[in-house]
Amino acid sequence: MISRVLNDIVIGVRLTVAGGRDSLVRLALTALGVGLGVAVLLSATAVPHMLDARNERGAARSVDWLDSNPSPRPGVDPVYVTQRNDEFRGRGLQGFLVGTTGPHSPRVPGVDRLPGPGEVVLSPGLARLLASPDGELLRPRFSQRLIGTIGDEGLTGPNELYFIIGSENASVLPGARMVSQFGTTSPSRELTTLQWLLIVLGATSFLIPVIVFVATSTRLAASVRDRRLAALRLIGASGSQVRRIAAGEAFIGAVAGLFVGAGLFLLIRALVPEITVAAFRGGIFAADVRPDWVLAVVIAVGLPVVAIVVAIMSLRRTIIEPLGVVRQSSGAPRRLWWRLLPPLVGGVLVLVSTAERQLPLIAGIALLLTWVPVLLPWIVERVTRRIDGGWSPAFQLAVRRLQMDSGTAARVVAGVAVVLAGSIALQTVYDRADEETAPSTSGQVTVTYMSKSLTQLRDFEAAMHGINGMAGVPVRTWGRLADQAGRHLEMRLSPCRDIAATPCTDGDVFYQPGGQSQPDQFVPAARQAVWFDKTEGSPQWTLPRLRALPSDTEGLGLLVVTPGALADATGTLRLLSTVTTQQPPGDPLFAENVRNAVGSLGWNGNVMTLGTGKDSTYLLISRVLQIGAFITLLIAVASLIVVALEQMRERRRSLAVLTANGVPRSVLAKALLWQTSIPVAVAVLVASVAGVLLAALLLVATARPVVFDWMTVALSGGAALGSVLVVTVLTLPALWQATSTTALREV
Length: 747
Fold this sequence. Notes:
With 747 residues, the chain is of the alpha+beta class. It folds into three domains: 434 residues, no CATH class; 101 residues, no CATH class; 167 residues, no CATH class. The chain contains 17 helices and 18 strands. Strand 3, helix 3 and strand 4 form a beta-alpha-beta unit. Helix 4 runs parallel beside helix 14, helix 11 runs antiparallel to helix 14 and helix 14 packs parallel to helix 17. The relative contact order is 0.12.
């Protein structure tokens, strides 16, 4: 029995492989269709490993900033580290400022040795940018001597802009930490409800069209296959044998598709490092695009099984007789009742899902999207049956063809319909998430700078006021004093024009009592010896005669100092200055000019921009979804083209006869356009309703207002209809070839 089954399957394989040029062409089209689906599925399974690898490398070079008392390591000289997060024309620019304390510094992944003062180590992407004309505005920030580049193990991506700069001032910079090792545990990302919803909805919207496309590809040339199977019945094959032979034909097509898909995946893997999307923080290493082996095995085993099941199920309504093929579809119209179950069950699952119960949400979205290809054949069949065959001859030819076989047309556009429904729902949820993650401020630039002396402070003020549009922006400078007992007092450095006291001369010092008090705060007195921030070594400053300012009943005590009063101070002052301003309209390079001005002073400052970006996790999710939507749309259009080309080959005899009898090719081209447009128009209507319904259910389930952007819905539908024109134009050469006189030889 087993040998008989295997023999029937082998016959099906041989009929496909050794069936002549036409069989090989059909096999190639099937392999291409299945291969595209395999490539997308393998890429999708590689996403988790890609993100984990990036996070692990990022954690391996990071510092545990929460550890206030790091343990020393034998044989390792600790290093002072402060982190810098910057930008350049919208691209993230990150790195460390380090101050070594000895020759045996802790190792950073990808770096042979840490740079000393005046030295820098750059990522290859940053080095290329600085050497290119595009990096001219960035070069002033990196005047240090380049001693090497960072290896792959120290970067999250091949195009990441990352640096490590040696600094003799690292120990006194804001946020500096002494560490004896680099590397922390990779933190897990906590996703919000809408972020999780976007991921689930996007993944489902992208994968279902791929599965539909794979199932459609395995049914190419169904009528030719049925005629071949009828010939086998004529020579004595039983119905079960015929089904096993059909399974063999589908199996070889699926296996060929696996190899094609693996090749396409390797091509995608090789091209991935060229992606420079800002949300990917410098791109993706090709080595990170590695499918999960369990899921890869499931794909390798599951797709041939799906192909075989689809092939056998497609014969359930076809009686293969020795003298021909009789289709039962005309006598047994499609039933509706079971096609209404997926949206009902899916809607209930979405509404009962919660943050803790995510499986019902995934199943509900899958059922609601699966409803589109399930319902579409029934609607297309009903619509085409009720269309009058009037109008032009091209319209009559198209309608008659659809009335004879509406199922194939519905399957062809099913992938586009699912993409459209998912896109409408995805864009609606995306708009709500975009509103929630929108910055609360608009174009705000904040600069912080640590000065060790009055000279550095004056240089910083001159640099800020020298920028176009910042001449009148105030620079607020603060410090902290410590007395011999270790108690502290806040100090504000201000010129006389900003102090509400008369008379006032440069060199005066004022004390403003506060209405609140803290046990670790001291009250200053004339001739008192103090330190700046830390009580180390000899006193750094002796307080002069103090003048009084009106008390601040709601604040703490404060020492207001004019710059001249610090002229006799010694040691490191540690003054923190802040500047906050709005980005001038019409000046997109304003923030870059501010960063260059601060960078030219020795990386003692930080520039932050607010209102110019979104949450990094949301940005990453949105970019991945946009790329996935684009790829899925290409897959859907490719499915239309592949199936249209195969249908053209299948009908070349009848088309050649029509041309020989005087039917113009232009009429056949218009008929082809109508034959594709009618199912697509129905699919757009069904998909729009399904997408709006799915979006409404998801927003209700997450307690968000149900608001739709109808312009986006209209544009999405227009894009789907536009794909019909693209497919028609691309298949015209095949139509011209099929209607040539040489095709009559095969009639």
